[in-house]
Amino acid sequence: MFPPFPGDSICLFGAFLVGHAGWSLPAVFSAVLVGNVVGFAADYAVGAWMRRRLARRAAAGAEGSPRLRAVLDLEERFRTRAAATLLLNRFLPGIRAFLFVGAGFYGYSFARTVLWGTLSAAAWNALIFAAGVALGMNWDDLSTWMERYTTVVWVLLGLLAVALLVRWLLRRRAGGKG
User: Fold this and answer.
1) What are the start-end ranges of the E strands in the chain?
2) Which of 58, 95, 98, 176 has the fewest CB atoms within 10 Å around its CB?
3) Any idea what DSSP says for residue 1?
4) pLDDT at position 1
5) Looking at residue 136, what is its pLDDT?
6) Domain map of the chain by residue range?
7) 65 confidence band (pLDDT: 50, 70, 90)
8) Burial class (CB in 10 A: 0-12, 13-18, 19+), 108
9) Are 110 and 82 in contact, with CB atoms under 8 Å apart?
C-alpha cells in the first residue's frame, strides 16, 4: 500500500488471517482495535507535550508572535468540530494522526478523544474486515482495494487543499484577511 499506513496494513493482514488461517475474528478485531487506541493515544500525548512547550514559550514572552496567535485562534474552531472530526478521522488516511495530535495540543478531553477515536477505528476496521470477507480474503484484492481507496482520498484532499488555497488567495487579493 502506498503510502504505507501501518494500522491499515495490520488491519488488512488481520482480516486475511481470519479468512485464511482461521484465526478468531473477535480476537483479531479486538487486538487491532487496541493497537489503534494505543497509537492515537500516543499521538494525543505528543500534542499535549507540544501544548506544554507552547505554554512555556508564551510564559517566556512569545505570546505576541503572529504564528502563536494564529495557532491559538484555531483552538476554538477545533473544539467546536472536535467530536465530528475525531469520529471521521479513520476515514482520512494521511492526516488522521495529526487530528489526535491536535486534540492533545488543544486540550480536548482525553476520554472523549478515546471515545470518538475508538468508535471511528471500530467502524473503519469493520469495513476492512467486511471487505476482506467480500473479496474472499484474497490478499492481493484487499491490498488493491485499499490502494484505490487511499488514492481517491489523497486526490480529494489535494483538491480540497487547492480550493482552500484559491479561496485564500482570492480573499487576500480582494483585500480581506483570508
Assistant:
1) none
2) 176
3) -
4) 35
5) 61
6) 6-173
7) low
8) buried
9) no
